[in-house]
């Protein structure tokens, strides 16, 4: 939550920042589910994400599975920070515009697009180096523009469409 608050406080007065933060939690069912630990909804989300990864990035999906890396290990942070840790701070507004415009499906497309932008590093990683890959997400993702272009290439699985 601190990352969200920090971004809001950089641009708004504290009372306005609080209202924006509260509105995001109330208006976004998926964020609400994550912040309230709604296990059944979170599990459905993870299944939709993995199905979309298998469809859009089969090699990345296989590599992460071979390394025993599950979405819970990296996506949770991305959701809680609303992708602030995936791009440079000065570009997060572009990603948020996309997330708020696209709604729940953006919570599937953006993580898959992030992994797609990181594909080369993930495919070369072993168990010892995969943590280093996930420590350098913004560098590997590139610009918000490149990330958003990658979002357009994500082919959603049927499970993802069921989240709507």
What can you tell me about this protein's structure?
- This protein has 164 residues and is mostly helical.
- It has one domain (39-161): Cyclin A, domain 1 (Orthogonal Bundle).
- The chain has helices at 2-11, 14-27, 29-35, 39-56, 58-66, 75-80, 92-102, 106-117, 119-124, 130-135, 137-141, 144-153, 158-161.
Q: Would you count the extended β strands for me?
A: 0
Arithmetic mean of pLDDT: 94
Shape descriptor:
globular
Which runs of at least 5 residues are low in confidence (pLDDT < 50)? none
CATH architectural arrangement: Orthogonal Bundle
Major sheet characteristics: none
CATH homologous group name: Ypt/Rab-GAP domain of gyp1p, domain 3
Task: Give the count of structural domains.
Answer: 1
Taking Cα atoms only, what radius of gyration do you get, to the nearest Å?
A: 15 Å
The name CATH uses for the topology is Cyclin A, domain 1
> Count the helices. How many?
13
Helix content: over 70%
Describe this structure in a few short sentences:
The protein has helices at residues 2-11, 14-27, 29-35, 39-56, 58-66, 75-80, 92-102, 106-117, 119-124, 130-135, 137-141, 144-153, 158-161. The chain has 164 residues and is mainly alpha-helical.
List keywords for this structure.
mainly alpha, 164 residues, 13 helices, Cyclin A, domain 1, 72% helix
How is this fold's topology laid out?
Elements: H1 2-11, H2 14-27, H3 29-35, H4 39-56, H5 58-66, H6 75-80, H7 92-102, H8 106-117, H9 119-124, H10 130-135, H11 137-141, H12 144-153, H13 158-161
Helix pairs in contact: 1-2, 2-3, 4-5, 4-8, 7-12, 8-12
